[in-house]
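Appendix C reproduces, verbatim, an entry submitted by the partner laboratory led by Prof. M.T., so that reviewers can inspect both the input and the predicted structure.
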Amino acid sequence: MMTNRLIQKRAKVKGSMGKIFLACLFAAVVLIILLFERHLTTHLNLLLEKTEVVAGSGDTQTSRHVRESNHGKERKEHVYVPASTEHYIMNNFEKLGFHFADYTKAAGCPIWLDPEISTQENYDNLQAFAEDIDTYSKLLEDFNETVPNLVETVRSGGGSLDQKELCKAARPHPDGIQALFPSKQLSLTPAGYVEPLLTPMRHPEFCTKGVNLHNLLRMDYLVHDFEQMCLNLKPHSKSILVDMGASLEFHGQSRFEPPIVTLLNSFEKFGFHFDHIYASEVKAFDSKKVFDDLLPEKYFASYHWMNTGVSADKESKLNILRSIVSKFGEDDFIVVKLDIDTSAIEVPLAQQLLEDDSINKLVDQFYFEHHVHMKEIKRCWGGSAQGSIQDSFELMNGLRKKGVAAHFWV
C-alpha cells in the first residue's frame, strides 16, 4: 500500500516538474522572441534613419553615405537615385528616338513641349522642375552671405564650429538645397543632390524660350550641393580642378565670361577655393596673353598652365587622368572638366573615367560636353558628333552610378 502511495507521490512530483520545465521552456522561448523582436526593431529603425523616399519617383534611397567617425567625412558609396524625369528617359530611349545617331531623327526638345511625347505625368514634372530651376538660379545670383573658405577651415580644424554646423553656411536655403525643389526632381549622388540628366543637355529654356546663343551657353541649370561636398571633406583634403580644354577665349565670344570662370566663381561663392588648377589647352597661346589678359589674378597662385594637348592613350604622360588625377587620394576634392571638341580623344577619356575604378573613385564632380546627334545643336556640333543621345545618357548615368557627380557641360 505504501509502495503504491509512494509511486503515486513520485508520479505527481514528476508531473509537477514536467509542468515547471514546460513553463520555463515556454518562458525562455518567449524571452528569445522578445529579444529578437527588439533587435530587429532596432535594426529597422536604423535602416529607416538611413532611407528617405524621393517623392515623384517612387524610389527609396539609402542615405547619402555611411558616416565615418572622424571629421564629418563620409565614405563615398556607389549609391545613385535618379529623379523620375531622368529615370523615364533612361527607360524610354527608343520611344523618344534617342537611340538614333542621326540629326534628322533625334531631337531633345519635344519632350519639353508636348505631353504626348512622353506622359502627362512626366511632362508635368519637367515643367515643375523648370520652375524650380528658375527659382534656384535667381536665388544663387542674389546669394550674398559670406561663406568662409570651407576647405581651409576644415583643414584647420573648423574653428569654433563642428563640421556639420560649419557646412550649413553653404546652404542656399535654411532647410537645405532640396527645399528649393518642391518638384522633387533632383537626383542624388554621393556628392549630394544634382540636376537630373535631361535633354537638351542645356538649360530647359533652350527648348522652352528659344534656341539661341544666350540659352545655349547658360550654366544656371547646374545644381551643386555644396553643403554635402563640405561634409565630405577631411582635414587633409586638397582641392583640385583639372581643366582639359582650357581655352580662356571662349569660342571667340568675348561678350561671354568663359564657362570655367563662371564655374570657379560659383564654387568660391559657396566656400570652395582650389589649391591647384591644372589647365591643359592644345591651341597655342602666348603665356603673356594668358596671364596678362585672360586669367584673373586671383588664380595665379594655384594655376598650372599646360599649353599642350591631352592624349587618350592610357600609357601617355599626356593622359591627364593618368598623370595628374591618379596621383591624388580619395579624400581629396577633385573636379574634372573635359571639353576639347575632339570626340576621338575626349570620348575615350570619358570612357576611361567610367571604366577605371582606380580613377573614378577619386573624382567628385565631372563636366563633359558630349557631342552626339541631337537636332537642336547640329549647328554647333556638326561633324564632330559621335553616337546618340542614348550613348551620352548611358555614359553620364553610368558615371553617377560609379559615385561621380557627372554633369552636361556647355
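The longest strand covers residues 239-244. Additional entries are available on request from the coordinating office.
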